[in-house]
């Protein structure tokens, strides 16, 4: 609950009048709302997970613990698998051991689909996954493990496959905060007026993290267990357009330079999802326009 989307989800759940327990990285505890009951537990320590579950006896679990950076997954593939796959198994096994009826949301990624042809867009949930990086592979394995527990142990496993989401509070290592933090640093005269970027031609499905938090709630409340739901905006936008808009918001003249080190070994050209299943099964709709998301993110970095 202390990562990027966790605090937004916790705040939303508190507004629904729920008792919210959270766990996560001590370095990020300051992001949580005051009403969250916080406990420390390592997702790779099943004994710690068991102790936490025995204490709080949850009715619902939103499993957001993950190594979520595609770029970092290329550098640390074993750690990515350990956290994303083994961690999920630890959680599900701990729940099975205490024999507690509990709804669990496992959050996957649109990256699981891999490269698709133009005639396959937008991607719906029936499309066979073809993960092309360690992160997406770990998330695909997580989904398959979740379905195994759903089928074999009759556990209430809900599955979200989230496309790119961003907003205030997202750390560096992702495209929007990387751009916004550099622009803010340039405006504050802490960096030369040059932004170094990777592949600007890639087109992705970007949503606001606050909309995505609501989508997770909607899936748990109105969705069907054992069914995968795409979560996204349903449209693609080029990374170039995102950079152009952020530069437009700045009064400073900034030069853009291509940095080969920022390119990934494999990069999917276009990726955006069909969200019709989520819209049909729940009352969720995306509400926050991307322009507001980008403005809010830039303001966040200006304050930092």
Instruction: Report the order of strands and helices.
Output: HEEHEHHEHEEHEEEHEEHEEHH
How many helix segments?
A: 10
| Rg over C-alpha atoms, rounded to the nearest angstrom | 19 Å
Report on the biggest sheet: 4 strands, parallel
Residue share in helices? 40-55%
Structural class per helix/strand content? alpha/beta
Query: What's the overall average pLDDT, rounded?
Result: 93
**Per DSSP, what share of the residues sits in E-state strands of 2 or more residues?**
5-15%
Shape: globular
Poorly predicted sequence stretches spanning 5 or more consecutive residues:
none
User: Strands across the major sheet, in which order?
Assistant: 3-4-5-10
Number of strands: 13
**Span of the ends, CA to CA:** 22 Å
Plain-language structure description:
The protein has 304 residues and is an alpha/beta fold. The protein is 42% helix and 14% strand. The protein has helices spanning 5-15, 46-56, 70-75, 77-98, 134-153, 175-187, 209-222, 239-248, 276-281, 290-303; strands spanning 21-22, 37-38, 60-63, 103-109, 156-162, 165-166, 194-197, 203-204, 207-208, 228-231, 237-238, 255-258, 270-271. A four-stranded parallel beta sheet has the order 3-4-5-10, with helices on both faces. Strands 11-8-13 form a three-stranded mixed beta sheet. Helix 5 (134-153) links the parallel strand 4 (103-109) and strand 5 (156-162). Helix 4 (77-98) runs parallel beside helix 5. The model has no long low-confidence stretch (mean pLDDT 93).
């Amino acid at each position: 609950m202390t990562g990027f989307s966790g605090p937004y989800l916790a705040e939303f759940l508190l507004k629904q009048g729920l008792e919210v327990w959270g766990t996560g990285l001590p370095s990020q505890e300051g992001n949580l709302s005051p009403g969250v009951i916080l406990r420390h537990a390592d997702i790779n320590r099943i004994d710690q997970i068991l102790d936490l579950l025995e204490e709080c006896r949850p009715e619902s679990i939103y499993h957001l613990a993950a190594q979520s950076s595609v770029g970092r997954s290329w550098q640390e593939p074993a750690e990515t698998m350990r956290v994303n796959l083994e961690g999920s198994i630890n959680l599900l096994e701990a729940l099975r051991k205490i024999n507690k009826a509990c709804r669990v949301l496992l959050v996957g990624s649109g990256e699981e689909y891999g490269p698709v042809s133009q005639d396959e867009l937008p991607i719906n949930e029936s499309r066979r996954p073809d993960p092309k990086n360690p992160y997406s592979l770990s998330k695909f394995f997580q989904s398959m493990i979740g379905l195994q527990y759903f089928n074999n142990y009759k556990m209430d496993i809900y599955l979200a496959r989230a496309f790119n989401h961003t907003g205030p509070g997202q750390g560096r290592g992702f495209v929007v905060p990387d751009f916004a933090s550099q622009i803010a640093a340039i405006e504050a005269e802490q960096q030369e007026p040059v932004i170094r970027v990777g592949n600007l031609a890639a087109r992705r499905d970007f949503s606001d993290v606050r909309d995505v938090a609501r989508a997770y709630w909607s899936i748990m409340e109105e969705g069907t267990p054992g069914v995968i739901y795409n979560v996204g905006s349903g449209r693609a936008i080029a990374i170039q357009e995102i950079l152009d808009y952020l530069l437009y918001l700045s009064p400073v003249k900034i030069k853009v330079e291509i940095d080969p080190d920022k390119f990934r070994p494999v990069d999917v050209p276009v990726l955006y999802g069909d969200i019709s299943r989520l819209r049909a099964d729940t009352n969720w709709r995306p509400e926050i326009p991307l322009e507001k998301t980008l403005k809010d993110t830039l303001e966040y970095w200006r304050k930092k």
